[in-house]
Amino acid sequence: MRFKSKILTTLFLSLLLSLPPLFGQTNGADFMQSIGKIYVVVAVIIAIFLGIIFYLTRLEKKIKNLEDQIQEQ
Predict the structure, then answer these.
(1) Quick one: which of 8, 60, 66, 69 is 20 to 30 A from 27 by CA?
(2) pTM of the predicted model as reported, rounded to 2 decimal places
(3) What are the backbone angles phi and psi of residue 42, rounded to the nearest 5°?
């Protein structure tokens, strides 16, 4: 569990650190696309989305196991 939280924290901090240079740009999307960092942003968003899906599926399995244990008693 700690490993997952460290990964999510690292991804979140890297996203936050990459955002400030964009605030000074009037044409942010074109600038990001021209230097190729748009792919980094998309990759980070996909990684976060997959992490959330993985976490929710594991949580669902744990809840199902607990429900099964309660029904057996």
Answers:
(1) 8
(2) 0.51
(3) -65, -40
Q: Which helix (H) or strand (E) holds 28?
A: helix 28-35
Q: Where are the domains of the chain?
A: 2-72
pLDDT of residue 31: 67
Q: Note the pLDDT tens digit of each residue in 11-20.
A: 776 766 666 6
Contact yes or no for 32/41 (Cβ under 8 A)? yes
* Cα 28 → chain centroid: 22
Cα dist from 68 to 54, 56, 57, 58, 62, whole Å: 21, 18, 17, 15, 10
